[in-house]
Amino acid sequence: MGSFLVFAILAVLAIGSAVGMVLSRNAIHSALFLIGTMAILAVFYVLLNAPFVAMVQVAVYAGAIMVLFLFVIMLLGAERLGGIGAGSRWQIGLAMALGVALLVILGIALFRGGATAGNPEVIDAGPAAFGLRLFEAYVLPFEVTSILLLVAMIGVIVLRTREGKK
Amino acid sequence: MPEVTINWYLALSAVLFTIGALGVLGRRNALIIFMSIELMLNAANLAFVALARHLGDLNGQIFVFFVMTVAAAEVAVGLALIVAIFRTKASINIDEINILKG
Amino acid sequence: MNVYGFAPLLLIFPAIGVLFNALLGHRFVRPDPEAAHNDAAGEKWSGWVASVMALASFTVAVGLFFALIGNDFHMGTVPLFDWIRIPSADFNVPWAMQVDTLSVTMMLVVAGVGSVIHIYAIGYMHGDKGFARFFAYMNLFLFFMLILVSANNYLMLFVGWEGVGLCSYLLIGFWFDEVDEEGKAVNANAARKAFVVNRIGDFAVIVAMILLFWTLGSLEFESVFSSAVELFEEGQRFTILGQSVTIGGVLAVVTTLFLIGAAGKSAQIPLYVWLPDAMAGPTPVSALIHAATMVTSGIYLIARSNVLYEIVRVVAEEGSVWLASPTLVAYVGAATALLAGIIAFTRFDIKKVLAYSTVSQLGFMIAAVGMGAYVAGMFHLVTHAFFKALLFLSAGSVIHGVEHGHHHLGHDDREEEAHEEAHEEAHEEAHGEEAFDPQDMRVMGGLRRRMPTTYWVYLIGALALSGIFPLAGFWSKDEILAHANQHNVGVYILLTLAAICTAFYMGRQIKLVFFGEPRHEAAEHAVESPPIMTTPLIILAALAVVGGALNLPFLTAGMAEAAHNHPEGIFLALEGWLEHSLAAFELSEEGIVNLPLIEPPALKPLVAGLSLLFAVGSFVLAFYVVYGRRPETAEERDPMRDVPVIGPAIWAFAVLPLNTLFMDYVVPAFNRAADWLAHAVDWTFWHDFVHDNVIRDVFVGFANFTSDVLDKKGLDGALVEGTAYLTRYLAEGIRLTQTGYVRNYALGLFLGVVALLAYFLLMAG
What we know:
The structure holds 3 protein chains of 3 kinds. Chain A is mostly helical. Chain A is built from 6 helices and no strands. Chain A has helices spanning 4-23, 27-47, 51-76, 89-113, 127-137, 139-165. In chain A, helix 1 runs antiparallel to helix 2 and helix 2 (27-47) packs antiparallel against helix 3 (51-76). By secondary structure, chain B is mainly alpha-helical. Chain B contains 3 helices and no strands. In chain B, helix 2 packs antiparallel against helix 3 (59-89). The radius of gyration of chain B is 17 Å and the shape is elongated. Chain C is mostly helical. In chain C, strand 1 and strand 2 (37-38) form a beta hairpin. Chain C is elongated and about 140 Å long. In chain C, helix 4 (131-150) runs antiparallel to helix 5 (154-172), helix 8 packs parallel to helix 13 (325-344) and helix 14 (350-370) runs antiparallel to helix 15. At the A-B interface, helix 1, helix 2, helix 3, helix 4 and helix 5 of A face helix 1, helix 2 and helix 3 of B.
């Protein structure tokens, strides 16, 4: 699971990048911070013996999805829209309180019971093994996912078409 | 140097998730709220992968794979909606969008 | 096996007639307003069905008559059904018919005379638009009258009593839509007057029944009479309204109340005022209801209650009760006889004379029963039914003929001629040609040549009424006079004077109507009535001639002897016949003793001769002396007024405002008495309290509770509207959370996530 030092540095970078994403005034900066977070998470995946997932993370998330984001931001010219501190004061307060409460709860849960006994053995998680497992045990979900993507694509086209007719 | 256990990964995941949640609740730019949701999904993915490593089970990684697929579809539709709303209201400020008011 | 078991048919036949004419009559009798007459065949159906039903009833009565003879005159009861049962009070009023000699006598008179009058009415009512209605009412009257006379208890008798009152009301006001020149509905008003005046008498009867039930615990004749005698012998005392009284005292009050009732029904002082006005009805009605039958029900009531009156007579002679109701009855009757006889002198309306004559003759009957001469009273009732029905029907025939004569002249103004001349005495002088009244004797005269049959039967009736030997009226009136002569000299004098009056006004009437020269073109052209009207007249005339044979004095004399040898089963005349239903008492050392009614010869030659002399003299006086030379006309004064001293005196007396007196004194007194009694009885029974507080308040409270609380607040409010209000209230609240802002939804979602995690990781872990 990697050395503590590597984990610590990467974790700090990921958190910092995430905070930067949330707090940035410029939406493009936010997108770039998010790409950073995702890249760091891809490194974590490699460390956690998930090379295929790490590759997909970089290609799909950091590549395709975030490029789409940047594209829309630039299309709309929405870089500067909206800041922090939206809504009323009680909403922000409540959100902060809930966030703290969530962290506390999770922290207590994590460090109270200690680590469950795991399986230290390193399994084969290469693309071949991954593909075999996917098409042996998850054929049906895989196909359903393809339909999901198809529906999403049709939905987007419909949205744009109706807009265009107007 | 302490050993890096599963708990550290899960803690990191929790922190990232909380940051993403606060981003959803705290920003009024619909695009950034969207990005925060992506961050929360990634936090969850991290927990999946960490637990897959911890338990020596490939199924966790496959689940992450599916989450990414759904996220891709979600982003495609969501961004189309945002563009449509922007066309009609000339704004992506969610505080100005309340047509669901009861 | 009850030999009288067929008695209910007596009531069923008239009931069928009522239903036929009430339900189907309008299908047969179709008034044709243009031709002013009805479908002749339809009239025959309507009239003959009614008449046949009356005849059938009469046949049943005859059957009962023979059944009584065959059964040794034993009284029989025919129960029809239970009517009122109150087991806790041991009170039971059955609907049962009593068949005894008294009731069968009444049945024969009612159904017999009724049948004849029904047939007569077919001719008389010809062309009237209410033909079927008339016969429905007539049959209804027969039905109720037969209930009255066949009742075996006071309550059922009272049903008939009220029923005939209703029919009287309906028939007096038969032409209710006619108005006089002032626009008053005279006929309807007359009907109302009769009804209201009768209420006073009916009220007294109700109170009497309450007293009887209160003290004797029953209303059935048999048990009332037997327990009255029993309690009287025991000397039982009662507490009524805080006073301790003997049974004799109670019965004195009861019998006095019965007298008031009889005064209402039988038109005695002070309640006689309705009967003259009742002549507004069609003439057959006057004959049947207001001369022959209904008005005699007061006499029947007293005769039926003879046991009670005899007890009171005994205690009154003993001196323990000051209210000697039998003597009161006798004096009321005698005074009425004289008063009405005098008033009859002064009337011009042919029917009004007869009406006052009826009041007078009813006074004779009441006086008779008051003296204990029940048989004489019933005898006069029967003969009077014959000759007074005859007189009324003949008068109807006269009116009919004069009307036809008037039509003949072409003065066809129905409204004018048909109206009742209500105020003739008020403006007799002004009575002119244009207001023709076919009932006014002053427009008649000389009719004996135009209407010979009517003349002869009218003469027979008039002589019978006057008491001329040997017609029916002589025997019956003389028997009453003989009794009065024997028992009560004051009554005798009054009745003799009344008898003189009777002969006088009848002589006057005969003279004015049938003799002399016609005083109006209508009388000149009068025509005789059709056979359907004259045939009943001849039948009744025959009865008026021979009716006296029912109770000839020498027959009774022989019977008195036979009675001692054969106490049971004698029947030679009315005396012996009725003896089985009537009673006479005497107080002796052992208590009350039942006496045989049959007395030694009722014919007293002196009394009879004297009354005959008076009657003939009076008749002749009127016929030849007073009205002999100068029959009055519309223009001239009544010659009687020119007779010194007596004439003006009679006129002054007769035009006394008796009606006004009645309305000013009797009615308010009655109202006050009724008011006082109502309150007294109310307090005695806690009637108000029970009614207002217990029954009404509880009921109203419960009703209010169910309506206001249970229904309006509970069902409507809580369930129906409450559901709607709750839904709406909740929706108003929840709606506030639906702001439409994504952030709020997200916050809610986040809150839920944190809460669930807290539960699963901390609590459930």
